Amino acid sequence: MCGRKTLTRDIQSIIQELAINKWVDPDNYSLSYNIAPTQRSPILIFENSQRVVKQMQWGLIPKWSKDQTIGSKLINARSESLKNKPSFKNLLEKNRCIVITDGYYEWRSSGGEKHPYYFHHPQNHLLLMAGLWSYWTPSEKSK
C-alpha cells in the first residue's frame, strides 16, 4: 500500500487537467518528489457543485481521537473493511475526496534490502486516488 507519493506539477497544470474551480491557499503549495504521511498535500473535494482543492494532512485523525498521533497510522483504507471500521464508516457518505498525485512509491524487499519502485502514468497525467477526509480539533483534555 502506498506510503510515499509525489506531486511534481505546477498549480496551473493541475487546475487545467482537473478543471478546478477554486484552489484554497495556493501559496502553501509546493511540488514534491517525496510526500510522506503526516505531511500536507492537495485533495479535491466538491463544495456547492464546484471542484475545490484544499491542502490536507495525509493521515486520518478520527473526530473521536484524543490526540493526533493516530494520523500517522491511518494513512490507507482498504475497500473490503471500510464499512466495518469506526474510523472510516461514518465518512463514506459525505466525506469522500480525490487525492491528487502524479506517482507513488512501493517498496519490495530483496536479499534483506528494500528497493523503491515508482508508479506513474505513462504519459505523465495525474493519478487520482480515492480518499476520505475529516476535520479534527483537539479537545481541551488533550491540549
Automatic annotation (TrEMBL):
<keyword id="KW-0227">DNA damage</keyword>
<dbReference type="GO" id="GO:0008233">
    <property type="term" value="F:peptidase activity"/>
</dbReference>
<dbReference type="GO" id="GO:0106300">
    <property type="term" value="P:protein-DNA covalent cross-linking repair"/>
</dbReference>
<keyword id="KW-0238">DNA-binding</keyword>
<dbReference type="GO" id="GO:0016829">
    <property type="term" value="F:lyase activity"/>
</dbReference>
<dbReference type="InterPro" id="IPR036590">
    <property type="entry name" value="SRAP-like"/>
</dbReference>
<keyword id="KW-0190">Covalent protein-DNA linkage</keyword>
<comment type="similarity">
    <text>Belongs to the SOS response-associated peptidase family.</text>
</comment>
<dbReference type="InterPro" id="IPR003738">
    <property type="entry name" value="SRAP"/>
</dbReference>
<dbReference type="Pfam" id="PF02586">
    <property type="entry name" value="SRAP"/>
</dbReference>
<keyword id="KW-0456">Lyase</keyword>
<dbReference type="GO" id="GO:0006508">
    <property type="term" value="P:proteolysis"/>
</dbReference>
<protein>
    <recommendedName>
        <fullName>Abasic site processing protein</fullName>
    </recommendedName>
</protein>
<keyword id="KW-0645">Protease</keyword>
<keyword id="KW-0378">Hydrolase</keyword>
<dbReference type="GO" id="GO:0003697">
    <property type="term" value="F:single-stranded DNA binding"/>
</dbReference>
